């Protein structure tokens, strides 16, 4: 009934979709197995992509040839560039998506991708032979053979949904949990644990009074996520902001005795940076209110996502509390919020390729590795799909360094440090964030993608032209002299100190608060010279000029750090024979088996003296 596949991907969430697309686009024959063909790429929680650090990840996925950026641009109903008031390293794109259009576009793109087949069934087990993944066994009893398997099970592994004192098996609202895989992997020696996440109620937008809320429109200029020429929407939908109050908090507290979280019915640890509303009012009792973002679910629906009100309290408590939120006095609930706990596998059991250390050609991606968020899942899926393809053809693995991409930071964090709570990406996790900006992901990663065979010639040509244009613009700024009388009226208009003699445009641009497009608009000579270049490339040149000192400092730091990153440790190195290492260091190094001395230095509990001992022992 089934041919033998190169790669089987289990689960069709954000990780599974990117894994299937990347492996197939590299030339592997892929089977995407999902429990429900109608929920491919479903946005299980909020209908949004991007945000702080997450937006950088989506742009990196796009630069590497993934689909998430294109799908988001097609389905967005609102776009905002966050942190514009800060430096470019902090700028982060975020989009509200039409939930149904997002999922529909993903499925359409996968169906148009050669080499991707689909099958609807639950996977209850893996076929393992001689320590190698060779296929899957489905709920209907089919054994489907493959050279590699990528598990992207999301919250479905032994998932339990909690609403107040009620709980029932499920991987998502109205969808059953997946069983069998955890038990098999544990029997093979894998370590598993439980995590928790939650979601807010969905409400009827027709029952809300928006006059009592603050409007939050999108940006006038839509930058988007994809470096392709994907069309952007001609109009946008506003989101809204309202707040809880003391009455809301008092009503919520009446349900605390029936809260599965406080009553101890949930074993899993929840996301620290996206707590439930009951957790917020419990942990931050001094705060009189908490912000709620009222987010439309799409162009053609009245359904609203109440961001900030994640909860697993009883339905009647949720309803009564919501009714005392300004604008929600007559609210109608479509679906109550709930918490879900599920199995995950601590990611220190993986290699940097996301292949498991114990079973060859078995890859994990997404929430099965302890992460939270669509973007974190999608980038893992992309890399797992790439490396599954590379592994079965005995090609070089693709591992991104911490200095190359947020994706590299995320995977290295997971493999080196593990996680005991849902892992979420932040800009603060990246030590080289001036280099890892959202605006230059194409310059950083497209060439690699092109060499692999993911990025098209058209994409590569666009990057080559961007580099050339940026260099030319920087040369223009270095060589163009601006007379004092030409620029002083502009300085007066922005309350900046005047000059008495001519200066190069480059020096003027280094003044705080001056943007290149703004400067060119005020100086006809400069405007004429820059008129042949795109806004995107002018902005890129401006950033490189203004932040050149910081960029060069980070590049120097990367060079110094790479000395440790380049020192590889032999595989299955026996740390137990190095008696000068402490017990904790020997135990952690033996368990994680770091690839390089750089990775070893980032393992929690490994100190600089341990690294020095390793360097001496290895003759360095």
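Q: What amino acid sequence fits the structure above?
A:
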């Amino acid at each position: 009934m089934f041919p033998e596949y190169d790669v089987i991907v289990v689960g069709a969430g954000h990780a599974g979709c990117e894994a299937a697309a990347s492996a197939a686009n590299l030339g592997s024959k892929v089977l995407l197995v999902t429990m429900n063909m109608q929920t491919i790429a479903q946005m299980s929680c909020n209908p949004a992509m991007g945000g702080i650090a997450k937006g950088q990840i989506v742009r990196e996925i796009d630069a590497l040839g993934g689909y998430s950026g294109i799908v988001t641009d097609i389905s967005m109903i609102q776009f905002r560039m966050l942190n514009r008031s800060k430096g470019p390293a902090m700028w982060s794109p975020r989009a509200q998506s039409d939930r149904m259009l997002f999922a529909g576009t993903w499925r359409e793109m996968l169906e148009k991708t050669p080499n991707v087949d689909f099958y609807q069934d639950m996977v209850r087990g893996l076929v393992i032979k001689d320590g190698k993944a060779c296929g899957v066994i489905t709920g209907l009893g089919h054994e489907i053979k493959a050279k590699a398997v990528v598990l992207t099970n999301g919250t479905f592994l032994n998932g339990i949904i909690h609403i107040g004192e009620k709980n029932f098996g499920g991987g998502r609202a109205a969808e059953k949990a997946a069983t069998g895989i955890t038990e098999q992997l544990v029997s093979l020696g894998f370590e598993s644990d439980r995590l928790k996440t939650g979601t807010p109620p969905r409400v009827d937008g027709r029952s809300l009074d928006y006059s009592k809320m603050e409007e939050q429109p999108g940006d006038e200029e839509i930058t988007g996520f994809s470096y392709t020429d994907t069309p952007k929407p001609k109009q946008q939908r506003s989101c809204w902001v309202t707040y809880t109050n003391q009455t809301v908090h008092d009503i919520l507290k009446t349900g605390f005795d029936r809260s599965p979280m406080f009553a101890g019915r949930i074993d899993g640890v929840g996301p620290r940076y996206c707590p439930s509303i009951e957790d917020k009012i419990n942990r931050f009792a001094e705060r009189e209110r908490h912000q709620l973002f009222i987010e439309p679910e799409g162009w053609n629906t009245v359904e609203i996502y109440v961001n900030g009100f994640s909860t697993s309290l009883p339905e009647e408590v949720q309803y009564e509390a919501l009714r005392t939120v300004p604008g929600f006095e007559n609210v109608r609930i479509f679906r109550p919020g709930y918490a879900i706990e599920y199995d995950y596998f601590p990611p220190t059991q993986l290699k940097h390729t996301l292949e498991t250390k114990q079973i060859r050609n078995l890859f994990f991606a997404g929430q099965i590795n302890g992460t939270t968020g669509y973007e974190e899942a999608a980038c893992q899926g992309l890399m797992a799909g790439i490396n599954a393809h590379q592994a079965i053809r005995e090609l070089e693995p693709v591992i991104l360094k911490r200095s190359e991409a947020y994706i590299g930071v995320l995977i290295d964090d997971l493999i080196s440090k593990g996680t005991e709570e849902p892992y979420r990406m932040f800009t603060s996790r990246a030590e080289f964030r001036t280099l890892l900006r959202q605006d230059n992901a194409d310059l950083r990663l497209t060439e690699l993608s092109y060499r692999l065979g993911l990025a098209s010639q058209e994409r590569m040509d666009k990057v080559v032209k961007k580099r050339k244009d940026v260099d030319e613009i920087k040369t223009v700024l270095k060589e163009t002299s601006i007379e004092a009388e030409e620029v002083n009226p502009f300085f007066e208009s922005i309350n900046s100190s005047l000059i008495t003699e001519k200066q190069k445009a480059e020096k003027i641009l280094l003044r705080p608060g001056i943007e290149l497009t703004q400067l060119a608009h005020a100086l006809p000579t400069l405007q004429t010279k820059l008129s042949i270049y795109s806004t995107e490339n002018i902005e890129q040149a401006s950033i490189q000029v203004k932040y050149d000192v910081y960029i060069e400092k980070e590049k120097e730091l990367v060079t110094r750090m790479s000395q440790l990153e380049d020192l590889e440790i032999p595989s299955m190195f026996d740390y137990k024979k190095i008696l000068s290492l402490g017990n904790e260091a020997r135990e952690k190094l033996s368990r994680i088996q770091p690839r390089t001395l750089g990775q070893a230095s980032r393992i929690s509990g490994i100190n600089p003296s341990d690294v020095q001992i390793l360097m001496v022992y290895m003759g360095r």
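Q: And what stands out in the fold?
A: The radius of gyration is 26 Å.
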